[in-house]
Amino acid sequence: MIVITVLFTASCKKGDVYKTLIITGQSEHNWKASSPVLKQILEETGMFTVEIMTTPEKGGDMSSFNPDFSKYKLVVLDYSGDLWQEKTRTDFVGYVRSGGGVVVYHGASISFPDWKEYNEITGLGGWNGRNEKDGPYVYYSRNELVVDASAGPAGGHGERHDFEVRTRVTDHPVTKGLPVRWMHGSDELYQNLRGPAVNMTVLATAYADTAFDGTGRDEPMLMVISYGNGRVFHTAMGHADEGGGPAMQCTGFLVTLQRGAEWAATGNVTQKVPFDFPTAAGVVLRPGFAEITLDDAFENLKSYDIPKSTRYFTYIQSQIRDASGNTEKLLEIEKLMTDFIKAGDASKEAKKLILRELSWMGTDYSIPGIKALETDPDLKDDVDYALKRLQSSN
Amino acid sequence: MSRKTSRRDFLRRSAAAAAGVFVIPEIIPSSVLGMNGTLPPSDRLVMGAIGTGSQGMSNMRDFLRLKDAVRFVALCDVDSKRLSDAKEVVDKANKDTGCRTYKDFREFLEKETLDAVSIALPDHWHGIIYTEAVNKKLHVYGEKPICRTIRDGQTIVAAVKKNNIIWQTGSWQRSLPNFRRGAELAINGRAGKINYIEVGLPDGGRGIGTPPVQDVPPELNWEMWLGPAPKVPFRGVVHWNWRWILDYSGGQMTDWAGHHIDIANWGAGLEHTGPVEISGTGVYPAEGIYNVPVEYDFLCKYSNGIQMRVANSSKLKLGMGTTWYGDKGWIHTDRGNRLSASDPKILEEVIGENEIHLYNSENHWQNFVDCAKSGKQTIAPIEVAYRAISVGLLGEIAMTTCETIHWDPDKEEITGNPRAGRLLSRPYRAPWTLPTV
C-alpha cells in the first residue's frame, strides 16, 4: 500500500564510468569559474570522465565547433551564446533523440531562444525575448503544479539569497530519498521561466519570496525532460563565483547534479544520499566538493571543540546507520571509535560524543577502552553513561 | 476513590509550620478536611504547578478560566524570572500575595499539601518528577509526551496505578468535537474496517549552527534544568528550543506523538496496545547543536494487521493530522476543527445506541478537575498516553538503529536486538535516579 523511502541505497558499482562532455565558452555567466567546478563535482562520483570543450569566443567562427557527440554518454550544457552551426545542431538533436543524456545547467536556459528543438530539450528557458509565444510559465502554487499560458516575459531573478527547496516528486530516481525540504546556499532564484515544457516533470521548486523581488510563486528548480530516447536533467541552480561559491558548494546543488547526471546518462541512480545533504535545518556547504571518508572523519573529529561544526561526528553516526544489520561493519566502526577514545590527541568534547554513541552501539570490545577513561574527571559522567547502558543488556 | 493525603500528614505539616519551619498554607486543601478524604464537589481544587514556561502558563490560564474550579497556591521553576512572573498571575487571580514559590521540586513536593499539580517540563525531567508527584499521591495534569524513554513511561504508569491517583495528559485534542467525532466514526467502522492509518506531524525547523558556550543567565539554575541529562555547558538553548536536542526531546515527532498518534489510537482501538514491528528512516541535520530528525517516516505494524505510517506532514498528501483508512473509505481530522472523509455522507452518519460511544469531554482542564473530585477516569489517562508516545519512541529507535524493530506490546520489550533494547532507557546522571514505585 505504501512505500517507505529507503534513504541509503546501494552505492555505485565500481567500474561504470561514463564519458562526459561539458560544453562552454560563451555565457552571460562566469563559465571559466563554473565549468571546472562542474567537472570536479561529476568526477568526485568516480562515475564520469569529463572533458571540457570550449567554443570560439562570441562572434567567432562557429564552424570549428563540431563535437562528435556520439562519443559521449552525457553532455553538460554550460553555454549561452552564438548559435551553433546547423550540422552541430542537427548532431546534438540526433544525439539526444537516440538516447544521449543531457544536463542543462543554470544559465544554459538563456541560450538559443529561436532553436525550437533546443527549447524542447531544456523544457523551460528565459530572457532573450522569450514570452508567451515560447510556451507557458510552469510553477507550483498551493502545492499544485500550474501551467500558465498568460502573456508576459520569461526569466528573471531577485537578489541572491539562501533559500529553501521543496522536493515535489519523491519517487523519481533523482530525488528518491532526498529530504522534502532543504536549504540551498546563496543563489540566484530563477523565476518566470517558460518554454514548451513537453514531457517535463518538475522535481523540485523554490519559493520566490517577494522580499527578494520574487514572484511569490514556487518556481521550478530541478526538472527532468524526456526527448526522443534521450533523458535531460535541468537544474536552474548553481550560479558560479570564483571557485564555485555557495551556490555550487551547496551539497544540495552538487548532489542533485551528480544524481541528475547519472540518471541522464543511464536512467538510474545508484548513488546514495550522503549524510551531509542539507535539510530544512540549514545550508550545508562542501567547499572542497569531495565527500569525506571515515578515516577523514575520525582524524578531523580529534580537534572538535565547542563551537566547531559537528559534521565529522554526524558523518560517523550516518556510517553506523548505514551499517545497520552488518555486524562486521559495525565492529569495524566500533574499533575505530575505541581507538579514538584512547587517542591522546583527541579532544575531550570529541571523546564525549563518541562515548555517547558507543553507549548503545558498542559491544564487549569497547568496554576496556571505555573503562580506561574512568580516571579522567572530565569524562567520568560520560564513561558512567556509556558503561551503564552498555552493560544493561550486553 | 481513596485519597492518602491523611489528616496525619496535615497535622504533621501544621506542627512543623507552627514551629516556624515554613509558612502555614492559608488555604487548606479540601481533601484534607473532607469525609474519608473525599473532596466535596463544591470546593475548589487546591493546586500547584511545576514548570511555569509557555505550556505551564498556558495550562494554568486554562485552569483559571474555569469558574471556581481551582486555586493555585504554590509554584516551582528553575528560572526565577519565570517563577516571579507566574506568581504575579496567580496572586492576581487569588487577589492576595500568598502564592508560594520554589526553585526545587523536591522542596515543593515535601512542603506543600495539595490536591493536584499541573506539570509542564522538558521531556527529560518527566520520568523523575511525574513519578515523585504521583508517589506523593497528588492528582496530576501532566504534559505530553509523558516520557522521554519507554522505561520512564513504564515507571510513571506503574506509579499512577499503585497510588491510585487521577491523571490527565495534556492531549487536549481529545476534548475537541472534531477529533472525538472523527475517532468515533472510525472506531464504529464508518470507513469500513480500518487497515491503515496515516499520521502527519510537523516538519523539523531551522537550525542555529553550533553556538559557543555562554554565561548562564542569573535567573536560571542550569544544573537543575539539566538534572538527569548529561552535563553540558550552556550554549543559549534552553526554554522552548530544548525540543530540538535529543538529550531533552525527540523533536517534533515525539512532541506531537501525544496528539495525532493518540487520536489515531483512539479511533482504531489501539489505545492499550502497541505495534509489533517498526521500521523507517529519519533525516538528520549534517551539523549543528540541533540534532533531532528534521524529517521522518516510519511504519508500524500491529498484530491485528493494521499498519500506521507516521511521517513529517510535507511527505503526506493530506498533510497534518490523522487519517484512518478503511476498506470503504477514509476519515481525516486535524486542528482547526478539520474533519473530512472520502465520502461526505460518512460525516452525516449517526452512531447508534448500541455502538461505541467515545468518552465525551468538552473541556480538557474541567474534565481533570471533575475527575479529581469524583474519582472517575479522565479522558486522557496515563496508560493511553504511554501507548501513544511509545509509538513515537519506537519509531525513534528504528530510525537511530536503521533497523526493523520487533516489539512485544504485552511484555513491553524489544525482542532479538540488544542494541536497540538499550535505547529503551537512558542512564541518569548522578545523583539522579528514576524513583522506585
Write a concise keyword list for the protein shown above.
heterodimer, A: 394 residues, alpha/beta, 9-stranded mixed beta sheet, two-stranded antiparallel sheet, 18% strand, disordered N terminus, B: 437 residues, 6-stranded parallel beta sheet, 15 strands
In short:
The complex is a heterodimer of chains A (394) and B (437). Chain A is an alpha/beta fold and 394 residues long. Helix content of chain A is 31%, strand content 18%.
Q: What would you say this structure looks like, in words?
A:
- The complex is a heterodimer of chains A (394) and B (437).
- By secondary structure, chain A is α/β, with parallel strands linked by helices.
- Chain A has 11 helices and 11 strands.
- In chain A, strands 2-1-3-4-11-10-9-7-8 form a 9-stranded mixed β-sheet, with helices on both faces. A two-stranded antiparallel ribbon of chain A has the order 5-6.
- The longest helix of chain A has 16 residues.
- Chain A starts with 17 loop residues before the first strand and ends with a helix.
- The N terminus of chain A is likely disordered.
- Chain B is α/β, with parallel strands linked by helices and 437 residues long.
- A 9-stranded mixed β-sheet of chain B has the order 13-12-11-7-10-9-8-14-15.
- In chain B, helix 6 packs parallel to helix 7, helix 7 runs antiparallel to helix 12 and helix 10 crosses helix 12.
- The N terminus of chain B is likely disordered.
- The interface between A and B is large, with 51 and 51 residues.
